[in-house]
Amino acid sequence: QVQFVESGGGLVQPGGSLRLSCAASGFTFSRYTMNWYRRTPGKEREWVAVISSTGGSTNYADSVKGRFTISRDNAKNTVFLQMTSLSPEDTAVYYCKASIGGWGQGTQVTVSS
Fold it and tell me: Which of 17, 106, 33 is nearest to 67 (CA)?
C-alpha cells in the first residue's frame, strides 16, 4: 500500500538548518507531484511546499519562501525539504504527501534556544 516515512526532524536553535527526508513506497513515485505539510498542535495542517513529478517546478507557502527548498530523487523514491533560517514559528510536525494514500507519522521539528 501507499506509505510515506518522514525523517530528519529534531531540535535546532533559531537560525539553524535541517534537512527532512520522506521515503515513499507503494506507488509510481515519479508520476506524482509531492507536497510537504506541517501541523502545530491546535492548528490546521498547513501546506508548505510542492514539487512537480519531474522536479522541474516548485512552489512554496509565503511563510517559508526563500528559506525552504523542496527537491526529489525519483531514483530513490524520496522527497526532501531543506530548511534554513529556522524560527520558533517553524516548530511543527512535518509530513509529505502525494495525491494518493494517507498520511505518514511525520517528523517533529522543534526550533528553540
Answer: 17
Three cell numbers, residue 105: 507519522
| C-beta of residue 34 within 8 angstroms of C-beta of residue 89 | no
DSSP string computed for 26-78:
SS-GGGS-EEEEEE-TTS--EEEEEE-TTS--EEE-TTTTTTEEEEEETTTTE
Query: 88: helix, coil or strand?
Result: helix
Going by C-alpha positions, the residue among 90, 80, 8, 6 that lies closest to residue 43 is 90
Question: 24 near 31, Cβ under 8 Å?
Answer: no
Q: Which residues of the chain, if any, have pLDDT below 70? A: none
- Taking only the tens place, the pLDDT of each residue in 84-110 is 999 999 999 999 999 999 999 999 999
Place of cell 527526508: 21
The Cα 45–Cα 58 span in angstroms is 20
